[in-house]
């Protein structure tokens, strides 16, 4: 019983970690894209 709960928690933790990494990457990429757009519109 306890072992199954621990495995479940580990799986949920790994999924959350992947989601966090993906969202951070997306935020960085969108931030860079908006910076590039701003830079191009200035010149």
Strand content: under 5%
> What string gives the helices and strands in order?
H
Mean pLDDT: 92
User: How many domains comprise the coordinates?
Assistant: 1
Helical element count? 1
Query: What oligomeric state do the depicted chains represent?
Result: single chain
Tell me the total number of β-strands.
0
Global outline: rod-shaped
Radius of gyration: 19 Å
Major beta sheet, specifics? none
Distance from N terminus to C terminus (CA atoms, Å) equals 64 Å
| Helix-strand makeup class | mainly alpha
Poorly predicted sequence stretches spanning 5 or more consecutive residues: none
Helix % is over 70%
How would you describe this protein?
The chain has one helix and no strands. The chain has one helix at residues 2-42. The longest helix has 41 residues, at 2-42. It has one domain. With 43 residues, the protein is mainly α. It is rod-shaped.
Compact description:
The chain has 43 residues and is mainly α. Helix content is 95%, strand content 0%.
């Amino acid at each position: 019983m306890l072992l199954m709960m621990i495995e479940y928690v580990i799986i949920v933790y790994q999924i959350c970690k992947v989601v966090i990494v993906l969202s951070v990457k997306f935020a960085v990429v969108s931030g860079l894209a908006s910076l590039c757009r701003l830079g191009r519109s200035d010149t």
